[in-house]
Amino acid sequence: MASLAIGQTHAITARSILQSSTARVAMNPPHTPPASVEQFLQCISQEYEGLSKQLKAISRHVEAHRDHLGLQGIQSVAEQCGVQPSAMVRFAKHFGFSGFSEMQRLFREGLAEQIAPGRAYNLRLRDVIEAGSTSLQSPQIADEFIKGSIAGMQQLRQELDQQAFARAVELLADTQAIWIAGSRRSFPVAVYLDYALQHTEKRIGLLNALGSMQQGQIRSVRAGDVLIAISFNPYAEETLQVAQQATQRGARVIAITDSRMGPLARTAEATLIVQDSATFGFRALTATMGLAQSLFVALAYRLEISSQPTSTGRHRGALRAVAQLPPLLKAANS
Length: 334
Fold this sequence. Notes:
Layout: H1 2-27, H2 37-47, H3 53-64, H4 74-81, H5 85-94, H6 100-108, H7 111-114, H8 117-130, H9 138-159, H10 162-174, E1 177-182, H11 187-197, E2 203-207, H12 214-217, E3 226-230, H13 237-248, E4 252-257, E5 270-273, E6 278-279, E7 282-283, H14 286-306, H15 325-333
Parallel strand pairs: 1-2, 1-3, 3-4, 4-5
Antiparallel strand pairs: 6-7
């Protein structure tokens, strides 16, 4: 009898384990491989927080070097990520690929069209420096810097997430109060947005961290307000704190940053990715400023459209009719 009881217990235990395992598989079905690089990056961004340390390192590398993954072997990519090749295989399988080779094919398709001008420029510049071109004259340095700025703008045009941009404009149009936060390299962009947005009839506030006063300023943020937070790697701690506190107070965050996997993007309802090219170690602001100006112009246009006369002749908004858009933009440029 004792042997029979033990056998029944083992059978029940085995059956329970099998049922539990089956339930876990049902709740967590395997990934279907992404159909495009953009879809793949979105999947990585959505699951980034739950990944292991090694897979996070691979995720960041994939986002930053996606143009060249189709050309490099697994050993080379693994070394650049600081992981073993087996981790690359685990990463690929986690997102539904059969292995590294299948994942690589996704990046290899249309590779000639995928290479962004900014990253191509950075590679060319690195080759120039490594070749020993240390005798560049000042005009040549200026020329290289201007080329880098142009490449950054071309890359922004090529890679701007149109859906995220439209969502950002929608958030700005629907709120009554807009706050801007940006420190260090991002500070000039934040100041420009503060200046430009003053030409709308919304309440505008710059959380400038002057004298560490942002902790007091953040108390004025209310639910329904929108915060434009600007920061790039290495991310300004004060900007990250402000974004987190604004979210806790019920505000919605628009992030202007350089990575979907970065800490600022995790608090944002709309994330606008921009990556300015670096020339001799100095990053330009051309693309970032261009994105900020585009955001303001798109908002101004949206507000003017909404203020056109209705069938009863009344205005739906506080600004003038769309025919007066040029004067509004002229004022913002003065």
